[in-house]
């Protein structure tokens, strides 16, 4: 991005065009999160995009003890090994070693948007196990974080969007931060309206890998194509597909996709 601190008209155009593209598939949370992650990477010249949703029983718990895991989407890994490392990280180390999560949780308000250096010094970041054991190996350094909070029937819902740049890349600017905030504000406004959130009871217990396979199945990919995309064996993908059939109590791909469509459909008039 340029050195100017002001958000320009074309910046606003890019932000709202991306939000509009997300709304076009808003009935499918996996689809719009993917479009969002890829679009943000283009606008902000970033590689990694992570977004997700969780319901919390107590906002004061900085460990983020979840009452139900409502979904997560990630995009931009260089290898399957990096992706597996992220799964391991999000399943455990995230709650124990992420100093940015602790810092963000202490900031009041329904909508928060910060750059890494807004909440952590370089020393705090680079000396943390969170960075040393994970982000350094992923090749990711500078990050922008966002967090929105909303009361729901199942608890306080936290929706987050994080984007990261490679080691050695220019850090996110103040203009980047302002643009990112405007986009996150728009997403926050559209959730439960044009954008369907993760939240159906049938996807709450799906692992990140099963969600990823489900997303690729909805794109029309065969099991062989999914295996190539995810660097897995065809047998492993078939096992994942069978697990999805069992989870949704269906016996074919057409039934699975029909049931998924039903679960993620959104009626703005109801």
Topology:
Blueprint: H1 9-24, H2 29-44, E1 48-56, E2 66-75, H3 80-97, H4 99-105, E3 111-115, H5 116-119, H6 122-126, H7 129-138, E4 140-152, E5 155-166, H8 174-190, H9 208-218, H10 223-230, H11 234-248, H12 253-264
Antiparallel strand pairs: 1-2, 1-5, 3-4, 4-5
User: Based on CA inertia axes, which overall geometry fits?
Assistant: globular
Strand numbers in spatial order across the main sheet = 2-1-5-4-3
**What is the N-to-C succession of helices and strands?**
HHEEHHEHHHEEHHHHH
Number of domains as seen in the coordinates:
2
CATH class of the largest domain: Alpha Beta
Q: For the record, what is the CATH homologous superfamily label of the largest domain?
A: Transcription factor LuxR-like, autoinducer-binding domain
Based on the coordinates given, report the CATH architecture of the largest domain: 2-Layer Sandwich
Summed over residues and divided by their number, the pLDDT gives a mean of 81
Structural category is alpha+beta
Low-confidence stretches: 58-68, 264-270
For the sheet with most strands, the description reads: 5 strands, antiparallel
The name of the CATH topology of the largest domain is Beta-Lactamase
The number of strands is 5
Helix content: 40-55%
| Number of H/I helices | 12
Instruction: Give the DSSP E fraction (strand runs of 2 or more residues).
Output: 15-25%
Cα separation of the termini: 42 Å
Radius of gyration: 18 Å
What features would you describe in this structure?
This protein is an alpha+beta fold. The chain has 2 domains: 190 residues, Transcription factor LuxR-like, autoinducer-binding domain (Beta-Lactamase); 63 residues, Winged helix-like DNA-binding domain superfamily/Winged helix DNA-binding domain (Arc Repressor Mutant, subunit A, Orthogonal Bundle). Helix content is 51%, strand content 18%. It contains 12 helices and 5 strands. Strands 2-1-5-4-3 form a 5-stranded antiparallel sheet, with helices on both faces. Strand 4 and strand 5 form a beta hairpin. Helix 1 runs antiparallel to helix 2, helix 3 packs antiparallel against helix 7 and helix 9 packs across helix 11. The longest helix has 18 residues. The protein is globular and about 55 Å long. The C terminus is likely disordered.
């Amino acid at each position: 991005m340029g050195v100017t601190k002001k958000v320009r008209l074309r910046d606003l155009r890019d932000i709202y065009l991306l939000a509009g593209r997300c709304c076009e598939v808003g009935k499918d949370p996996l689809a719009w999160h993917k479009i969002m992650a890829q679009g943000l990477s283009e606008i902000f010249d970033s590689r990694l995009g992570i977004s997700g949703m969780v319901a919390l029983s107590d906002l004061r718990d900085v460990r983020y003890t979840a009452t139900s895991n409502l979904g997560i989407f990630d995009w931009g890994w260089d290898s399957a090994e990096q992706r597996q490392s992220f799964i391991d990280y999000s399943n455990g180390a995230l709650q124990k070693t992420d100093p940015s999560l602790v810092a963000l949780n202490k900031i009041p308000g329904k909508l928060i948007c910060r750059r890494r250096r807004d909440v952590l010094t370089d020393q705090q970041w680079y000396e943390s196990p969170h960075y040393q054991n994970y982000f350094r190996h992923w090749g990711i350094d500078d990050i922008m974080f966002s967090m929105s909070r909303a009361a729901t029937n199942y608890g306080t819902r936290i929706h987050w969007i994080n984007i990261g740049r490679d080691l050695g890349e220019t850090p996110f600017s103040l203009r980047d931060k302002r643009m990112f905030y405007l986009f996150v504000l728009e997403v926050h406004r559209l959730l439960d309206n044009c954008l369907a959130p993760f939240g159906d009871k049938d996807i709450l217990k799906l692992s990140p890998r099963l969600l990823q396979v489900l997303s690729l199945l909805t794109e029309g990919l065969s099991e062989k194509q999914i295996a190539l995309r995810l660097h897995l064996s065809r047998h492993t993908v078939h096992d994942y597909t069978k697990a999805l059939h069992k989870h949704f109590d269906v016996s074919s791909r057409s039934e699975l996709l029909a049931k998924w469509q039903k679960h993620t459909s959104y009626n703005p008039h109801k």
